[in-house]
Amino acid sequence: DAGVIQSPRHEVTEMGQEVTLRCKPISGHNSLFWYRQTMMRGLELLIYFNNNVPIDDSGMPEDRFSAKMPNASFSTLKIQPSEPRDSAVYFCASNTQDTQYFGPGTRLTVL
Amino acid sequence: GENVEQHPSTLSVQEGDSAVIKCTYSDSASNYFPWYKQELGKGPQLIIDIRSNVGEKKDQRIAVTLNKTAKHFSLHITETQPEDSAVYFCAASRGGGSQGNLIFGKGTKLSVKP
How many CB pairs under 8 A join A and B? Predict the structure, then answer.
């Protein structure tokens, strides 16, 4: 199994631009999680889906952030417009029961 | 709200010594406790986990202990090696049927000096 796949691995953009992060979960997993990691705040859960349905988006910082899961094998996290304080590493994880498996992350830099 | 406290935030040991990282959790319904290792530039990787019906679990040089009464769980690494240097995260499951949702500690940066 290829594990959780995320793209791009690195993204550098300018303030105000739209950013789209992508995730392909492990086949057969029915839950998907988006996290943000910074030095100051550690790992923060942004949103998670179960069977493609958003269950809890209380961690999404503000309306500039949105996430979708159109099918069981693909999810996106979009930031529009992006701001410098959004700079962080964004992880996607999937699971089928208890154990979450993380992707390699996307390092986002907003200038 | 529910949270997981992790200590220490940094830990430095000599190669061959043992390392212990401790966590406490607040959600009484938590029943699953994984530990993750994150190396530089990579995502967190599961290294060991324990469920609430077990008090201790061991896998080669790593072991985890759980005290449900006190809501404490710990990671023990024996005979540490330089490649054990990484950030370690503990986590606890959120109760109430939250489909695998985990609460993470803030992490411990372990440095093993050769």
Answer: 49
CB contact under 8 A, B100 and A56: no
Chain B residues lying within 8 Å of A102, measured CB to CB: 36, 43-45
Query: Measured between CB atoms, does B99 come within 8 Å of chain A?
Result: yes
B88 touches chain A (CB under 8 A): no
Q: Which of A23, A29, A39, A43 best probes binding to B when mutated, by most B CB atoms within 10 angstroms? A: A43
Residues paired with residue B4 on neighbouring β-strands, in sequence order:
B25
Q: Are A72 and A52 in contact (CB under 8 A)?
A: yes
Count of helix runs (H) and strand runs (E) in chain B: 0, 11
Bridge partners (DSSP) of residue A21 are A77
Categorize the per-residue pLDDT at B113 as very low, low, confident or very high, splitting at 50, 70 and 90. Answer: very high
Q: Which two tokens stand for residue B70?
A: 């006190």
Residue B105 is given by DSSP the state -
Q: Which residues of A touch B102 (CB under 8 A)?
A: 100
Residues B50-65 have pLDDT tens digits of 998 888 999 999 999 9
Whole-angstrom CA distances from B80 to A70, B54, B76 are 45, 25, 10
Q: Phi and psi dihedrals of A59, rounded to 5? A: -85, -10
